[in-house]
Write a structure and sequence with these properties.
single chain; 571 residues; eight-stranded mixed sheet; five-stranded mixed sheet; elongated
Length: 571
């Protein structure tokens, strides 16, 4: 018997079409079993394909799929398939039905979670207090050192002692902040583990969906239906592993980039032995650019401005604090061992990519099972080996540490989406970073931690403030620094030193470089005003000096304010 394709059908929940209503009214109901055959997960949802094998009697019938996810979008349902007779779809009805109650909570577990959350609130209050102390110290630095005669402030001959005191205070406060943030992270991990230990199940009262499909058949037929629908409560996020081999005098550097997907779902239905695809399409973001309205300018009452500032400050005080890296994530040396010749390394399966002009999809190898409990599973999507360019970068005005960076041009078909990256250098884990989104052809830069074989020191040469004379009405300040860089590697390296020159926002403030300073190779690094750089190739053992200085002039009756003033890191 020849097989015929079913017509695709779509209907809203509670379809009002008279034809569809008549078909449901006189049809016999057939409760069919179905299974999730394939799932495409987006960053903000998923599309599920269920297969339904069913025997259809002659005449009008209704195939019912019971207990599907409550987050189904009724407007997204499509039905297609094939059968041993010519079948026709009369309509699709989506019915909300009560869900199962959540299993009873464990009182001891809930009490433990509440206690940990209370401890976390106390720690966050301490973090806020430490940050306030740090801010107060910086405000003292900005306004407390004043060498002008007859003015309140600290005389110039006491600056060195004041800087040491401020540095020690910042160091202690920073260490306290790190310790508190690590405690917050430990509590967060404990709370997350306990929350996952809660009895699984949908929230009490959460409805599920029954899907009823009206079918007409001229005779008895065997059919396989495919029901496609969109659900909320599913997501995936890109994560990366990057392993850098720095090479050596006779060996070029190499980099391995492993792209992964972290997938989780709490849709209300389990996905068992399903084909999984992850797509870069953001279906919930919208389909068109927003309309631009008129921009109306008006004056605001100063009282209202103060109220807005207070609301913003209050929201910032309540914002969660980013936790510092856990000590358990500290770098551990890789164990090097020779593999016997009859051993074969374990290979990781990667996904198959389908890249189009506007999106990319990755078909994960094999079948996947993912429960609807929010559990995160990670899948390898692709692996790429690259020859990177290495550079050492340092910003001694903020930190005298030199950091190794590797860069490469992204040449894959699919873009690199923004995501967390685990960084390894020569077999040692060096930390976590964040990879910015990069389209094909764009340059990617990643940091790989401190380079202890590049020594950097920065010392002040001049810091002088002058008062206006009897005739002059302008005050001046001169600052100059010397930075010394030495390459202790046994191979040449490109080293980039980054510093900055003040940028005046007012025409009455002037900034000019001092004579005899080292001219920067880049006067606006990455198009940022006032950010300058010196990029040179250093031979093994080579040492260079950079002198950087400027003079600031401003009206005698005004005071200077520095936004984003450097905060040196003491070691």
């Amino acid at each position: 018997m020849s097989r015929s394709s079913l017509l695709a059908a779509t209907a809203l929940a509670g379809a009002l079409l008279p034809l569809a209503a008549a078909s449901f009214a006189g049809a016999a109901e057939i409760e069919a079993r179905s299974r999730v055959e394939a799932v495409t997960v987006y960053p903000d949802g998923a599309t599920v394909v269920r297969t339904v094998p069913v025997r259809i009697p002659a005449g009008s019938n209704t195939v019912v799929l019971r207990g599907l996810a409550g987050s189904i979008d009724p407007a997204s349902i499509r039905v297609e398939g094939e059968g041993s007779a010519r079948l026709s779809v009369g309509g699709v009805d989506v019915r909300a039905v009560p869900g199962d109650a959540r299993p009873a909570a464990d009182p001891a577990l809930e009490k433990r979670i509440a206690g940990l959350r209370a401890q976390r609130d106390v720690l966050l209050a301490r973090v806020e207090a430490a940050e306030g102390k740090k801010k107060a110290i910086m405000q003292f630095v900005a306004g407390g050192v004043d060498g002008r005669a007859g003015k309140s402030g600290l005389p110039a001959d006491q600056w060195a002692a004041a800087w040491d005191a401020v540095g020690d205070a910042l160091e202690k406060t920073g260490a306290a902040l790190v310790a508190l943030q690590q405690q917050v992270e430990t509590l967060d991990d404990e709370i997350t583990a306990l929350e996952r230990a809660r009895p699984a199940g949908p929230p009490a009262g959460q409805p599920r969906r029954d899907v009823a499909i009206a079918l007409d058949s001229p005779g008895e037929a065997d059919a396989t239906l495919r029901v496609t629908y969109r659900v909320a409560g599913a997501r995936w996020a890109p994560v990366y592993d990057v392993r850098l081999d720095t090479g050596g005098p006779d060996r070029r550097p190499g980099l391995e980039l492993v792209r992964r997907a972290q997938v989780s779902q709490s849709t209300g239905e389990d996905w068992t032995d399903a084909a999984l695809t992850v797509s870069t399409v953001r279906a919930a973001r919208g389909t068109q650019a927003p309309e631009v309205d008129d921009l109306v300018v008006s004056l605001v009452d100063p009282v209202e401005i103060a109220r807005r500032a207070e609301r913003a400050a209050s929201m910032q005080r309540r914002a969660p604090v980013a936790a510092a890296p856990s000590p358990s994530m500290a770098a551990k040396p890789a164990l090097a061992a020779e593999e016997p010749e009859d051993k074969v390394a374990v290979a990781e399966q990667v996904a198959e990519i389908e890249a189009g002009a506007f999106q990319a999809s990755y078909r994960v190898a094999g079948k996947v099972t993912l429960a609807s409990d929010g559990t995160v599973r990670t899948f390898a999507l692709s692996t790429r080996r690259i020859e990177p360019a290495l550079v050492v970068k340092t910003a001694p005005a903020l930190d005298e540490t030199a950091y190794l960076e590797a860069s490469f041009v992204h040449e894959e078909e699919a873009p690199l989406l923004a995501g967390a990256v685990s960084l390894h250098r020569d077999g040692v884990y060096v930390g976590r970073g964040r990879l910015a989104q990069a389209a094909p052809g764009e340059k990617v830069e990643l940091g790989f931690g401190a380079d202890d074989k590049v020594k950097v020191t920065r010392v002040p040469l001049r810091r002088q403030a002058s008062e206006p004379g009897w005739i002059g009405n302008t005050r001046n300040e001169v600052r100059a620094f010397r930075t010394t860089i030495r390459n202790l590697h046994d191979m040449p390296l490109r080293i980039v030193v980054v510093d900055r020159t003040p940028v005046p926002e007012n025409a009455s403030v002037t900034v000019e470089p001092l004579p005899g300073m080292t001219a920067p190779t880049d006067k606006a690094l990455r198009d940022r005003r006032g950010v300058v750089g010196w990029s040179w190739e250093y031979k093994p053992g080579e040492q260079r000096e950079i002198q950087h200085g400027y003079r600031i002039g401003w009206p005698a009756d005004r005071e200077l304010s520095y936004a984003g003033a450097p905060q040196p890191v003491r070691r």
